[in-house]
Design brief:
single chain, mainly beta, Jelly Rolls, seven-stranded antiparallel beta sheet, six-stranded antiparallel beta sheet
Length: 445
């Protein structure tokens, strides 16, 4: 049985615990989870009790993130980490180039070199803030044709929102296993160790690295108690562990710390958690379950109505980063230009396409295609291209179902600075501005 076949067999029928932000608990062996206390004098089954904190101890209870892990070996039992090659991974502050007010668009990453796994295939497009100050975010792309074998990754700088576009992923974490297919997203909290195995011959997608406050579900305000992403649709793993026995085996553990990659070779797998409980946990979410709220009278709503997750800042309503999805939905607005309107925004927007076409941009060669992305920085004018404008302006305004595409956006409070490799990439589209040419003068006094 090939590695892909084995991974697919493992991924079939995975069990989950549901509910975003819940206090989950799970044990792979009955009795492994202590009751009534977190750190007994002797943890059950000879395990080690360990707390993983994603927030300061003293943060308000509603914001506090922590989990208790009961593992075969404590995380403290490891050799020194040494600096390793960063590859194509870059971190904030981004100083290789200057922030660019021009509208930018990229084709998908080219195919990876043979033997490229998820970590080796990470490629940073840009970002903002400062990873050492826990502010801002980064946009990465990934491409891979090989599963991570005897190799584990963790990110001390931020949480990772993984958005597959091509090829499914089996993600083995300290908490258990997640399956993430295109159209789903996986959220890996800061500091959680994981390994990515491929469910198809190749994989490609996007990653938002959030240095700031952890993602939460947005408040609903006048929407009421229901709508947008429902907490019950987020799936957390159940406990599953790797045990190498007394002999052990060498496993490379790579840690991203203050912008650089550090490596240590353990004599065992660190994915050895037999039981756990807490709320600092990974999730997978199916974007097709997003409950779209939209206009049933006139005008296209602001894109904030499509927010799945938000990372709050110190200013209410101003996000460090929002994750927004343009999911299948009905358009029924009367006397309304139905695609997204022409716009200039104090927020900066990186948009990607998972499948199909986006209703404000033309697809095809040289267009906005799956696996590609566009960057519209602070106050840069953008909106529907000429072809879309002409079509939508003349369309018959009968109820219309938008169900042939799935696009998303990472929206952030600060301008995104592209990395040098992104600014000079061969797959950077030249002449992106041309899509708005031909928007002629129609003014008739």
């Amino acid at each position: 049985m090939s590695g892909i076949e084995q991974a697919r067999k493992t991924a079939e029928g995975l069990a989950y615990s549901t509910g975003f932000g819940n206090e989950h608990s799970s044990e792979a062996i009955p009795g492994a989870l202590p009751l009534g206390r977190n750190s007994p004098q002797r943890a059950p089954l000879g395990l080690y009790a360990e707390q993983l904190s994603g927030s300061a101890f003293t943060e308000p209870r509603a914001h506090n993130r922590r989990s208790w892990l009961y593992r075969i070996r404590p995380s403290a039992a490891h050799p020194p980490f040494v600096r390793t090659d960063n590859g194509a991974v870059r971190s904030a502050p981004f100083t290789e180039t200057v922030p660019d007010p021009n509208r930018l668009r990229w084709d998908p990453l080219p195919d990876p070199a043979p033997g490229t796994d998820f970590l080796a295939g990470l490629w940073t497009l840009g970002g903002n803030g400062d990873a050492t100050q826990r502010t801002g975010m980064a946009v990465h792309l990934y491409h891979a044709d090989t599963s991570m074998t005897d190799r584990v990754f963790s990110d001390s700088d931020g949480e990772l929102l993984i958005v597959p576009e091509r090829g499914g992923l089996l993600i083995r974490t300290e908490f258990g296993l997640l399956r993430a297919e295109p159209g789903e997203v996986a959220l890996i909290p800061r500091g959680v160790r994981f390994r990515v195995e491929l469910l198809d011959a190749t994989a490609r997608g996007y990653v938002c690295e959030n240095y700031g406050q952890p993602f939460v579900l947005p408040d609903l305000g006048p929407i009421g108690a229901n709508g947008l992403a429902n907490a019950r649709d987020f799936r957390a793993p159940v406990a599953a562990y790797e045990d190498d026995g007394d002999a052990g085996r060498p496993v490379e553990v790579v840690n991203k710390f203050c912008g650089n990659l550090w490596s240590a070779t353990y004599d065992h797998s660190p994915l050895d958690v037999v039981a756990w409980h807490g709320n600092h946990v990974p999730y997978v979410y199916d974007l097709h379950r997003f409950n779209v709220i939209g206009s049933i009278s006139y005008d296209h709503p602001d894109p904030s109505i499509f927010t799945v997750l938000t990372s709050p800042s110190d200013t209410p309503g101003l996000a460090g980063v929002d994750f927004v999805v343009f999911a299948p939905r009905w358009l029924v607005g009367e006397d309304t230009f139905r695609p997204p309107y022409f716009h200039r925004n104090v927020m900066s927007e990186y948009m990607g396409l998972i499948e199909g076409a986006y209703d404000a941009k033309s697809a095809g060669k040289g267009g906005f295609v799956a696996g590609g992305g566009s960057l519209h920085n602070m106050m840069s004018a953008h909106g529907p291209d000429r072809e879309t404008f002409d079509r939508a302006s003349a369309a018959e305004l009968k109820p219309q179902k938008i169900d042939d595409g799935l696009a998303f956006m990472f929206e952030t409070r600060w301008p995104l600075t592209a990395t040098g490799q992104a600014a000079g990439a061969g797959h950077l589209q030249h002449g992106y501005d041309d899509v708005w040419q031909g928007l002629s003068r129609n003014f008739r006094p």
